[in-house]
Design brief:
Number of domains: 1
Structural class: alpha/beta
Order of helices and strands: EHHHHEEEEHEEH
CATH class: Alpha Beta
Helix content: 25-40%
Number of helices: 6
Strand order of the largest sheet: 2-4-5-6-7
CATH architecture: Alpha-Beta Complex
Shape: globular
Largest sheet: 5 strands, mixed
Distance between the termini: 31 Å
């Protein structure tokens, strides 16, 4: 297996193949920005809330507090490992030899044969998150004996956004084929050109203390 993937790695490949090279092939670690670190801290607060109640949540969660309360009532799980092998079998995030796509759901809850999968965003919601949540649905079908999965983004800026509904019978094979094709595109890539239009928020750009000068020659 050439690469072990995640949605963020697929996203990096699409945004800037040179960023993908620095991160995945050259294994240059990112330096978390202030915004990234704040997002990490808020994700931890959400995890604690799901596991132990909502009393200590800060103002950033006001718009999604009713959704959090529903999830707690449904005995939701937090930070759920949904990683899979290339045979679409369940595995763990730390299965260094067998994992193919890594994924972690911020919140999962449901009744019977139906599940709700949630990804929390401390910032805004964007249409690209539909694709991310479709991949999370595929991963969850590999882990859970469920017939239906509804996906949501909980945004600190706009509240709860429903991003899709998927059934095992209608959508599972389509989702598997889509992400297998996407992986094959990544695995076949031989050139990793820069995309100067993706530099603004890139952690590898020199403006963020990274090694890449964007469209300029890095030597």
């Amino acid at each position: 297996m050439k690469y072990q993937m995640s949605y963020s790695r697929f996203e990096a490949f699409d945004a800037c193949r040179f960023r993908f090279k620095l991160s995945v092939i050259d294994k240059i670690k990112q330096k978390p920005s202030f915004i990234m670190q704040k997002g990490i801290d808020l994700h931890q607060k959400l995890e604690y809330a799901i596991k132990g109640g909502v009393a200590s949540l800060p103002d950033e969660f006001k718009m999604i507090l009713p959704a959090i309360e529903v999830a707690i009532e449904q005995e939701a799980e937090a930070e759920v490992d949904l990683s899979i092998t290339k045979r679409f079998e369940p595995t763990t995030f730390n299965d260094w030899n067998g994992v193919w796509i890594r994924g972690r759901a911020d919140v999962i809850y449901g009744v019977g044969k139906s599940l709700v999968i949630v990804d929390y965003k401390s910032g805004n919601y964007y249409d690209k998150h539909i694709d991310q949540m479709a991949m999370m649905a595929m991963l969850a079908f590999c882990h859970y004996d469920t017939n239906r999965i509804d996906t949501q983004v909980w945004s600190g800026k706009v509240g709860v956004v429903s991003t899709g509904s998927y059934t095992r019978r209608k959508d599972f094979i389509k989702l598997k084929n889509k992400w297998l094709a996407k992986y094959n595109e990544v695995a076949r890539a031989k050139k990793f050109d820069k995309n100067p239009q993706a530099c603004k928020y890139c952690p590898y750009h020199v403006s963020n203390d990274g090694p890449c000068k964007g469209g300029e020659d890095d030597g």
